[in-house]
Every structure is written in structure tokens, then in C-alpha cells.
Amino acid sequence: MHCPRCREEFIASVSTCPDCEVPLTEALEAEVDGSLEPFLFSAKTPELHAELKSILEQASFPHRDVDRGLEVPRGLMPQLVPALESRFEIEADDDQAVLVREWVSEPSEEPPSLEVLQCSMEDLEQAAETRIPELTRLVSFGRQGAAAALLRLTQLGRRGLVNWVDLLIAAIRAESMREASAYATILKEEGVLDAPLYVAEIVPSLSGSQLLIALHVLSRLPDRRVAPFMLPLLEHESEEVRDEADEVLCWVAEADMGFEAAGDPEARSLAVSRWQQWVDQNC
Hints:
Elements: E1 38-43, H1 46-58, E2 64-66, E3 69-73, H2 77-85, E4 88-92, E5 96-102, H3 121-126, H4 128-139, H5 144-158, H6 164-173, H7 177-190, H8 195-202, H9 208-220, H10 227-230, H11 239-253, H12 265-282
Parallel strand pairs: 1-5
Antiparallel strand pairs: 1-3, 2-3, 4-5
Helix pairs in contact: 4-5, 5-7, 6-7, 7-9, 9-11
């Protein structure tokens, strides 16, 4: 007996797959489109693995726990990925996806009306003063169309109506990863050269999720001037913060000094010295 979803084989006395909760069949149909081929989800931490498994179990989503993570049928990926992307940062390729971290909490209020996204760009331009607050709220709820509309408004010469750096910093302090990422994209497109420096200057006052979001933003806006702000974070008590700070430096320097956030203190110290030397010579 076989499960038509996960394709596991069972003894004859079993009639239902315990994982997929579907009736077993005596023979499997040949795979034509690869929809039943397993796709691997792995997680960077045991906590993320447990959270993903809990989500799949609560949704009765077919999956299989394997050594490297959790396997799901490839054909069901279109149903699963959007739900996970709303909750986790995911790095994916054709064969597997890695859950990097869980998104920090998003605004609890109900999202505003989507009617503003249905306006023509002419309407938006004519009513920019009233529409921009609506669009910025929509960005905080992950609406990519809102970010695109905001960017278009700046390209139409409405930049003076909104301070993107202030919005980015407010999003970081509000612990909204999606909103901060959207504003970082706009700032990069707009070529606001001092944006990374403004973010780096508030780094010493941040902690927890705020700090991680700021580091994520800085990795997307590489600028050598932020490197000195990263050096103290290489000795931060949080392994995740150390890793993110090193990633920012790698993007900025386009080099890798061999720093391992989880390495022993002596090895980390040597790598920090190499980063210090690079900063002294280049910043």
C-alpha cells in the first residue's frame, strides 16, 4: 500500500497515511509533472523547525519529517509558500527553502482600504498629500503595489512630500520588517546616499528585533561609512546580531574575513582584528 501524496509505502493492514491523512492505494500512478516530488524545507534553528512543523500539523498539510528538515509535495508549494512568506524570511532555490527567521510582529490594526491602489497614477499625483499616508499604511501590511506607487510618486517629483529616511527609521523602531524593507528598496532606487548612515547612527540605541531589522536594512544598502558601527556588534552577546553585523561588513567590503558568529572567542577575536584593519584602511 502506498500514499498517493508523500508516496510512502505501508504494510497491507494500514489503510490511511498517518501523515497526509489520505486513503492509501495499492499502486502509485507514474509521476508526470513532478507534483508529488518532495520539496525540502529546512530551518536555521530548532525553534524555527518546531514552529514550521506545528503550522503544517495544525493545517493538516502533508509533510514528512526527515533528517535535514521537512519535506512537502512540490505540487502543493503554491499553496504553502505565500502563507509562510507572510510569517518567515525565506531563502529559496529550485530544490529547497530555508527559514531564516520569523518576521517580527506586524501592526495589529486592520489594513486600510485597497481602493487607493486602484487609483490611476494621475489621481495619485493630484491627491498625493492625502494619498501618501494611505499608501504608507498599506506598505506596513506588505502591499507591494503600495511601495511601487510611492516610488512612482517620487519619480514624478513628489519627493518633497515625504521623508523616506524618517519613515524607514520609524519602521525600524516599530519593529516592522516588511515596512522597513519596502522603504529601503525605495531609498536604494532613489539613490538617497546618506540613508545608510542615518540608520547606522541609531544602531547603538537599538536592541532586540529593532537591531536585527536595522542590520537587515544595512545589508541591503551597503555603504562603507557604516562599517565602524558594525565592529562593536561583532562582539555582541547575541550570535544572531554578530552574524548579521558580519554580513553587513561582507556586503560593504565585498570581502570575507572568516568571521564565524558561532565560533570560539579566540577565532572570533582574530577575525575582528582583520575587520578592524580593513576599516582603518578603507573607512
